[in-house]
Design brief:
- Helices cover 39% and strands 12% of the residues.
- It is built from 14 helices and 14 strands.
- Helix 2 packs across helix 3, helix 4 packs across helix 11 and helix 6 packs parallel to helix 8.
- It is globular and about 65 Å long.
- The N and C termini lie far apart (63 Å).
């Protein structure tokens, strides 16, 4: 165990003492200074050594345990977790056909995935910020100089994701774009050269986000599925030529909802570094966590600048704002901004400036806290109702976070596309999970919870159960 005298003093002027303790221990573990199995100081001893409240250390340790850095058992000392090595070779295989199974489904119905509830949007505060900036934009703001985005917004975004997601970057690396799709498209254009087999290969989570699949395919990518399980993407299962790009949603995998384990994260980063690949981390809705605090972003533990981090305000505020961002590795920044200029994927300057003010005033964080409480209640009600009414046919996810819930048919021969069409013909807008696979599919249904009022969840789940019964009878 490291002697207490060897722990450095905390920077009290910068605040976030809990985060400093967390990062101090995390970085020592990642750099091998605290090997697997080593006993860590007790929370009381650590608190005395660092001159902080014991609760500060307890919370930091809890974060480290939740993310897999520490392990403990009742009656035993807390120790550094082991990270077993994982072989990174797989059987070479020809890429599977890059054709989506299905592309269109009904929108606007109950349980539609990917759509936030905008009824609680803070109209008055946003209108005030927008009006003030519309009246007082500087001459500098109205020019072409800031292709990557207004400086104040880049700084505000970085301040937020550094504090909440553990992202480490300079504000210059933040590029403002109209959507996550635009960010994925920009990075794909920089990294993928159609006709060059060495740069066409993209490894994609299986199952994965259909829009990302389509955007990457349009950029000329040769998509190769890599399976996900209860620990997230398993890079050891990747097959065929080394990829140029690896697309992942590690904090809240789409659509399964699982969180990538720490050993898998470290293996992914090492694989990308060794093979010269870029990991595209899509952090689409990890702001919403109900069972625990948000897991730190993959980008925050990347020491080789192999991760491009993508986030959006579409889920946290409103899709109509058309604001997203990418945190780009330094070596890709010039090329990314050049492509951005050519494509014209620029967010209007008054929107950017107003959003910077909105964030700096604390309005954004307040809205997140408000919506997190609302969505947590709706997710819990939906999970309970579906388990009560549909548990015989469906294996319902835990619903620990995010705006959608995965459920899997217990009968693996179920045609989830046909079932989804039948359900959606009766006022719903669920999605078949098989449509999110590139290879062999597991049938299931993806349901959105954002607009499902808690008091209405039971009746909606009962209606789905009746429809499932009818489909079973007719089959």
């Amino acid at each position: 165990m490291i002697a207490v005298a060897q722990w450095p003093a905390l920077d009290r002027s910068s605040g976030d003492l809990e985060g400093q303790v967390y990062r101090l221990m995390r970085d020592r573990i990642l750099h091998g200074q605290m090997p697997a199995g080593q006993r860590v100081p007790s929370t009381r001893t650590m608190a005395v050594s660092l001159g902080v409240a014991r609760s500060t250390v307890v919370n930091a340790y809890d974060r480290l345990k939740a993310e897999g850095y520490l392990q403990s058992a009742i009656g035993a000392a807390t120790r550094v977790a082991g990270f077993p090595s994982t072989p990174l070779s797989g059987q070479a295989a020809a890429p599977l056909p890059n054709q989506p199974r299905i592309t269109e489904f009904k929108t606007g119905g109950l349980f539609e995935p990917g759509v936030p509830d905008v009824s609680a949007f803070p109209h008055a505060a946003w209108a005030r910020c927008l009006g003030a900036r519309g009246r007082s934009l500087r001459v500098h703001d109205l020019g072409y100089s800031d292709h990557g985005g207004v400086r104040e917004l880049r700084e505000a975004i970085l301040e937020h994701i550094a504090a909440t997601r553990g992202v480490i970057a300079r504000s210059e690396q933040v590029v403002i774009v109209p959507s996550t799709g635009a960010a994925i498209g920009l990075l794909a254009s920089v990294l993928i050269s159609p006709g060059d087999p060495a740069s066409e290969v993209v490894w994609m989570e299986e199952p994965g986000y259909a829009s990302a699949q389509a955007i990457l395919r349009m950029a000329g990518a040769n998509l190769v599925p890599v399976p996900c399980d209860v620990e997230g993407l398993d890079i050891a299962q990747g097959a065929g030529p080394s990829p140029r790009l690896i697309y992942v949603t590690p904090s809240h995998q789409y659509p399964t909802g699982v969180t990538m384990s720490l050993p898998r994260r470290l293996a992914l980063l090492e694989f990308a570094r060794a093979n010269g690949a870029i990991v595209l981390e899509d952090d689409y809705d990890s702001e919403f966590q109900y069972a625990s605090r948000p897991i730190a972003a993959l980008q925050g533990i990347d020491r080789g600048e192999v991760v491009a981090y993508v986030g959006t305000f579409s889920k946290t505020l409103a899709p109509g704002l058309r604001v997203a961002y990418a945190v780009v590795p330094s070596r890709l920044l010039a090329a990314t901004e050049a492509v951005q200029r050519l494509r014209g994927t620029i967010v209007p300057v008054h929107i950017q400036a107003a959003l910077a003010d909105f964030m700096r005033e604390g309005r954004f964080r307040a809205h997140l806290r408000h919506m997190n409480a609302i969505y947590a209640e709706r997710m819990a009600a939906t999970v309970e109702a579906l388990n009560r009414h549909c548990g015989v046919q469906l294996d319902i996810g835990t619903g620990g976070g995010g705006l959608q819930l995965a459920s899997w048919f217990r009968d693996v021969k179920t045609d989830d596309v046909a079932v989804a069409r039948t359900i959606n013909a009766n006022g719903f807008a669920v999605r078949p999970i098989s449509a999110l696979h590139l290879g062999a599919a597991r049938p299931g249904l993806l349901l959105g919870i954002a607009r499902m009022k808690a008091q209405a969840a039971d009746a909606a789940a009962a209606r789905i159960a009746r429809l499932l019964a009818k489909v079973s009878v007719s089959a």
